[in-house]
Amino acid sequence: MRESILTIPVSEVFEPKCGCPICRMRDMLESRCVEYIMGAAMMEPDVRIETNRLGFCKTHFEQMMKQKNRLSLALMLQTHLKDVEQSSFLQKSFFGGKKSKLQRLSAVNSDCFVCSKIDWGMQRILVTVFEMFKKSDEFRLLFSQQEMLCLPHYSMLTACASEHLTKGILSDFEKSAFELTKNYFQELIGDVSHYCNMYDYRNSGADADWGNSKDSIERAIKFLTTR
């Protein structure tokens, strides 16, 4: 399969073979979107309309606070807060009562500009992933050589694979994805169990062998949540 402007980023994401490739894909989109929104995009009227309306979730507020340009965040917060005030506290309508205001306030904590852009980008990139799996033996091998798929992304991939892959290729994809997830899952269970066992006094001492278990808690949480 010839490389193109669509396939090259996917190939680059799958090359490291460390962790979940879909998490890496999400992280790439997330990082670019946060940098974009904290840069010149902050002054683009169309973007500001969307950030005023959608706001940001806790995760992405925290990532934005780690960026150097805190003034950009303050300016976005200034107009977002005014938008929330106007729609939920000052707006009077003959048709919108208390219930509609509560619904608007609820949306403040459930919507996020960055999340919406990541979802949009992921949908399109995953189409390319399925196309590459369908047309490229080399990519199928690369897919099978990944370290793992986290549980949420395994679920997401297998849920939408049938929309993009024909029966024979679908079976190969499902088998490959299942093997990646199952093998890592079993390894993770072993590491977490080993970590717990190391707190038994019989396993203590200067020469105690923790194996690969010391970071098993963090790895288990990331496997279960993508984070």
How would you explain this protein's 3D organization?
The chain has 227 residues and is mainly α. It folds into 2 domains: 7-135, no CATH class; 148-227, no CATH class. The chain is built from 11 helices and no strands. Helix 3 (45-54) crosses helix 5 (70-90), helix 5 (70-90) packs antiparallel against helix 6 (98-108) and helix 10 (167-197) runs antiparallel to helix 11. The chain is globular, with a radius of gyration of 22 Å.
Radius of gyration: 22 Å
Reported for the largest beta sheet, the result is: none
Give the helices and strands as they follow along the chain: HHHHHHHHHHH
* Share in helix: 55-70%
- Give the CA-based shape: globular
Note the gap between the termini.
Answer: 32 Å
Give the tally of β-strands.
0
Number of helices: 11
Mean pLDDT: 89
Helix and strand content put the structural class at: mainly alpha
The fraction of residues assigned to DSSP E strands is under 5%
Write a short abstract of this structure.
This protein has 227 residues and is mostly helical. The protein contains eleven helices and no strands. The chain has two domains: 7-135, no CATH class; 148-227, no CATH class.
Notable characteristics:
about 230 residues; mainly alpha; 2 domains
SSE layout and pairings?
Blueprint: H1 7-14, H2 21-37, H3 45-54, H4 58-65, H5 70-90, H6 98-108, H7 113-135, H8 137-144, H9 151-160, H10 167-197, H11 216-225
Helix pairs in contact: 2-7, 3-5, 5-6, 7-8, 9-10, 10-11
